[in-house]
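Question (not urgent): is this output format expected?
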Amino acid sequence: MLKIMELEKQQKQLSDWQIILNKFKEFTGEEPQIDGILFLIGVQELGMGFRKFKKDEKLSVMHIAICTLLEPYGFYEFAGRDKDGWPHWTKKENIPFLESKQQNKLMTEAIIDYFKKEGWL
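Got this back:
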């Protein structure tokens, strides 16, 4: 019990991003990469459970995550689901050109906001 209390105290001191990375490492057993986090968000938002995806489906799953994450920023608007249950978005605004570091910061913030909204943080 003491070890759990110590871990909880340490986690409170960590950033939200580090908490997410730690939880994903516990879940997968590997160092999390942003692409892996996006993929799992996409699978969650697709709502069909985890299964094997074809290569083109994996890209679509990642697109689901990106649209979901950037919708609150006004870049996309949810348009509905197709007959197979896959979600679709309409682009509302072009994403401005961002340097790699800025892109990473935007996606990191969007992922943190997503997990706060989902009650994971």
